[in-house]
């Protein structure tokens, strides 16, 4: 595939679109993970969290063929993402944490969540790149400004509209449930039973929000 050929440019456009579509989810994860930190550390977390997430995504794309051979990968990733979604709600807007501990904890949350949510993205990008890793790098670099800008915007909105935390966690829960139903072990069953599939997804979302809110209220009650 020659550089700047029609085939190269069309593949690059496809990768950029894929990355930008996912950027919304990334911005939610980064914005919510950074919300509990002091203002002076939020920008650092956004930048380093984005860099870490992009690096992991690039490495994952390199080994995508190997990833496809691992049975249960989507199931494990989905379960871990459910836990992350629950924690986002349960921890609320608690600022009573050590800055350094919170800083690295936020970056860890961003990288893990992005890696889990990005499995489908990695597969799509790898397919569009046709083995050309330069396409993957260029596509990811184009998406970085969108993720950083979106994360900063969400941080500002969270202070004014706390419901965004719940909405963001629900988005993560939906993504997690979709990963589980797409797992090869269960995909055939859920495809044959679409009602059960959507009922399962809805139950996961409702459960994450319900138990997350319950934990948040219980924590607030014990503190007061």
Automatic annotation (TrEMBL):
<feature type="transmembrane region" description="Helical">
    <location>
        <begin position="73"/>
        <end position="90"/>
    </location>
</feature>
<dbReference type="Pfam" id="PF03741">
    <property type="entry name" value="TerC"/>
</dbReference>
<protein>
    <submittedName>
        <fullName>TerC family protein</fullName>
    </submittedName>
</protein>
<feature type="transmembrane region" description="Helical">
    <location>
        <begin position="102"/>
        <end position="127"/>
    </location>
</feature>
<dbReference type="GO" id="GO:0016020">
    <property type="term" value="C:membrane"/>
</dbReference>
<comment type="similarity">
    <text>Belongs to the TerC family.</text>
</comment>
<dbReference type="InterPro" id="IPR022301">
    <property type="entry name" value="Integral_membrane_YjbE"/>
</dbReference>
<feature type="transmembrane region" description="Helical">
    <location>
        <begin position="133"/>
        <end position="154"/>
    </location>
</feature>
<keyword id="KW-0472">Membrane</keyword>
<feature type="transmembrane region" description="Helical">
    <location>
        <begin position="12"/>
        <end position="33"/>
    </location>
</feature>
<keyword id="KW-1133">Transmembrane helix</keyword>
<feature type="transmembrane region" description="Helical">
    <location>
        <begin position="45"/>
        <end position="67"/>
    </location>
</feature>
<feature type="transmembrane region" description="Helical">
    <location>
        <begin position="195"/>
        <end position="212"/>
    </location>
</feature>
<keyword id="KW-0812">Transmembrane</keyword>
<feature type="transmembrane region" description="Helical">
    <location>
        <begin position="161"/>
        <end position="180"/>
    </location>
</feature>
<dbReference type="InterPro" id="IPR005496">
    <property type="entry name" value="Integral_membrane_TerC"/>
</dbReference>
